[in-house]
């Protein structure tokens, strides 16, 4: 299975490309924004595609040609304003979904925020609410399509070493999770067709990632 990672140069994205390239049955195609980022992934044997997520749909669709799945891990980051949040976390996500449809890629994994419910938008701080709203509507757009989607809602992200053990369910108690573990949850979700049409929260825990994903 060839997997296009949108936002490959992000922190989860880099872990994900590494995990995929270490997998016998998966190959990564890293979608990046700058040519100078390519060597990092090419040194791992991953294919790359230089595409501006804030541009048009067609280049994204071209990058998606010939792949079997798309993982959207892109994000505007914590230090940008609401404008970038809309352009990347909402518009970028929707354009990637439309690109998947255009390229005939059915499998789509979305890395969302921990809680994107309407209640979460209303209770968020004024600075955080635009991000939650963007993620909410991107998730809703994906769920309205015919794509074979999985939506993953990770807890507070850390750079701790992954433990390979998590707690995953439709609702879990808020907690942290290493980015490395999120990457491996994505891989396990791609491997398990039972995650199609599902969304779930995931935080650190005591269950192996494979068992946690299979139990969803």
From TrEMBL:
Domain (NAD(P)-binding) ranges: 7-192
CDD domains, A to Z: SDR_a5
InterPro entries given in the database record: NAD(P)-bd_dom, NAD(P)-bd_dom_sf
PANTHER family, per database record: FLAVIN REDUCTASE-RELATED, UPF0659 PROTEIN YMR090W
Protein name: Sugar epimerase
Organism this protein belongs to: Pontibacillus marinus BH030004 = DSM 16465
Origin organism lineage: Bacteria, Bacillati, Bacillota, Bacilli, Bacillales
């Amino acid at each position: 299975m060839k997997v296009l990672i949108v936002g490959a140069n992000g922190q989860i994205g880099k872990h994900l490309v590494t995990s995929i390239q270490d997998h016998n049955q998966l190959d990564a195609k890293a979608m990046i924004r700058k040519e100078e980022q390519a060597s990092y992934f090419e040194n791992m044997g991953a294919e790359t595609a230089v595409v501006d997520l804030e541009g048009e749909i067609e280049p994204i669709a071209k990058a998606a040609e010939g792949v079997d799945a798309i993982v959207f891990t892109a994000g505007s980051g914590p230090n940008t304003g609401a404008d970038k949040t809309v352009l990347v976390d909402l518009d970028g996500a929707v354009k990637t979904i439309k690109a998947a449809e255009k390229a005939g890629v059915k499998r789509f994994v979305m890395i969302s925020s921990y809680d994107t419910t309407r209640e979460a938008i209303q209770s968020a701080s004024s600075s955080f609410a635009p991000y939650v709203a963007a993620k909410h509507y991107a998730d809703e757009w994906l769920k309205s399509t015919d794509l074979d989607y999985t939506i993953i809602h990770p807890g507070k992200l850390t750079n701790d070493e992954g433990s390979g053990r998590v707690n995953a369910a439709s609702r879990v108690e808020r907690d942290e999770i290493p980015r490395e573990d999120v990457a491996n949850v994505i891989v396990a979700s791609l491997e398990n067709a039972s995650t199609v049409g599902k969304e779930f929260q995931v935080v650190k825990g005591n269950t192996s990632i494979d068992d946690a994903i299979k139990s969803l």
